[in-house]
Amino acid sequence: MLFNSLEFLIFFPVVVTLYFLFPFRFRWAWLLLASYVFYMFWNIPYVLLLVVSTLVDYTAGWQMGRTENPVKRRMFLVLSLMTNLGILAVFKYFNFFSSSFNALFKTLGLSAYLPHLNVLLPLGISFYTFQTLSYTIDVYRKRLEPQRHLGVFALYVSFFPQLVAGPIERAGHLLPQFFKKHDFDYPRMCDGLKLMLWGFFKKIVIADRLAFFVNFVYGHPAQWHGATVYIATTFFAFQIYCDFSGYSDIAIGAARIMGFEIMENFRRPYFAVSIAEFWRRWHISLSTWFRDYLYIPLGGNRVPVQRWYLNLIFVFVISGLWHGANWTFVVWGALHGFYMLFSVWTEGWRRRAVSFLNLERVPALYKMLRIAITYHLVLFSWIFFRAQSLRDVKTLIINMFSPGGNDAFPYKTFDFTVSLALIALLIIVHLLQSRWRLRDLTLRMPKFARWIFYYAVLFSIIFLGKFEGIEFIYFQF
Amino acid sequence: MNQNARDMIAFPVIFVILSLAVQAYLMEGFYARRSGDFGEWNRIVRGEINADILITGASRAQAGMDVSLLEEDLNKDVYNIALLGNSLALQVARLKVYLKYNRPPEAIVQVVGRNTLRKPRAYNPGQFIPYLNEKEIYQTLSGISKHFILARYFPLYSFALLSHDFTVDAVQGLTGREDTVDCYKGYCPVNIDWNKEEDVKTVKRLYPQGLKGQMTEEGKAALNELVQLCRQKRIRLFFVYAPVYYQFNEFVVNLDEVRAIYRKLSDGRDIVFMDYSSAEMARQEKYFYNSQHLNQLGSIEFSKIFGPELKQLLTRIEEN
Question: What pTM value is reported for the model?
Answer without folding.
Answer: 0.84
